[in-house]
Amino acid sequence: MHLQFLGTSGGVPTKSRNVSALALRPDSGRGWYLVDCGEATQHQLLRTPLSLVKLEAILITHQHGDHCYGLPGLLASASMAGRTRPLTIVGPQAIGDFLDAVKTTTGLHLSFPLAFVDAGTLTGPLELADFSVEGAALSHGVACYAYAFSERHVERKLDRQRLQARGVEPGPLWGRLQQGEDVELADGTRLASAEVLLAGRRPRKVVIGGDNDTPALLARLCEGADVLVHEATYTETVVARLGTDNRHSTAARIAAFAQAQGVPHLLLTHFSPRYGYAPDAASSIADIEREARAQYTGDLALADDFAVYSLSREGVLGQSDQGRRPPRHAVLHDATRHNDEQGAP
To answer: How far is residue 225 from each of residues 16, 34, 148, 207, 220, measured CA to CA in Å?
Structure first.
């Protein structure tokens, strides 16, 4: 499984970070899934090999603009690219209303049908092509959700000794049994695939959260999770200065939750644009990392735009060379003081 960050800034873009979007790809095939779609997400995709025609589903965590303003343009571009397959969109009902309003007011016509799923109605797993998806409501002032992706198709090996004992030599029947199909042998007897398939490995599970001031709401989804992706908009120092967290998490808060939950890999994203890379910056991205590491002893990373993380079948997460990753440089958004006063991220 591969996660590619297309936007890692909260609220507004910076020179080195776009607003929220994350691509999730299974190991095989060219299909992929998009979680959130902030403004200019389709521009970010131009710097990746990801195709809108191969997009399987879009899952939106909530209706704030830095998570959904890119959605109409991306859908229009998919249509102009010749997409005809239906596309599933999951999100709060407000996202469905938003798309309906855009269609009505801008004359947007798509060459493919949309299948909208209200995340608030997900009482059980939603079965997509590659993943089984569960949702959980978060706390952010508007309807907001986290999504857990568990892989559906776990490969299983054939029990060669049992096959040979049954007189089944390597050949086409092995392939059919490998795919879970029961077969008829030369002597007319039936051989069930379940008889000759060894137990499979544990399905991998990735949890991707939206904006959220109460990490404990993720406890159910994080049971057995290999990776948690979550916002770390602020540090505790900045929250103390602002006098509010604006319904967001701090690095300390989400890191302490991940530690208590025993999640082995934590990927942080959605950083306030006030955090730059300059050593003399009033607030540095390094502050977020230091605060998180003080609370969490697992595998921690702070995501950059275009960074790709790959989760192996053994549950080991590593950063991949795939995708483009722009160089780090100092960024302090011009509106930092204005944001402090107005309560923006």
So the answer is: 30, 19, 8, 7, 10
User: 75: closest CA among 31, 48, 113?
Assistant: 113
**pLDDT tens-place string over residues 82-134:** 999 999 999 999 999 999 999 999 999 999 999 999 999 999 999 999 999 99
Q: Are residues 139 and 127 in the same domain?
A: yes
Backbone angles phi, psi at 272, to 5 degrees: -55, 140
* DSSP three-state, residue 11: coil
Q: What pLDDT was estimated at residue 42?
A: 98
The predicted model gives 69-80 an average pLDDT of: 98
**Which of 300 and 331 is assigned the larger pLDDT?**
300
How are beta strands 145-151 and 131-137 bridged, if at all? antiparallel
Whether residues 285 and 212 fall in one domain: yes
Q: Please tell me whether residues 120 and 259 are part of one structural domain.
A: yes
Instruction: Name which residue leads in pLDDT, 187 or 66.
Output: 66
Q: What's the CATH code of the domain at 129?
A: 3.60.15.10
In DSSP notation, 52-65 reads GGGEEEEE----SH
Q: Looking at the annotation, which residues are catalytic?
A: 66
Q: Are residues 189 and 282 in the same domain?
A: no
Domain of 319 in residue numbering reads as: 2-154+201-342
**Are both 210 and 159 inside the same structural domain?**
no
Cβ 233 vs Cβ 249: under 8 Å: yes
Residue ending a domain, choose from 200, 229, 263: 200
Cα–Cα distance, 57 to 114 (Å, whole number): 10
Nearest-CA neighbor of 45 among 58, 29, 34? 34
Q: Are residues 190 and 50 in the same domain?
A: no
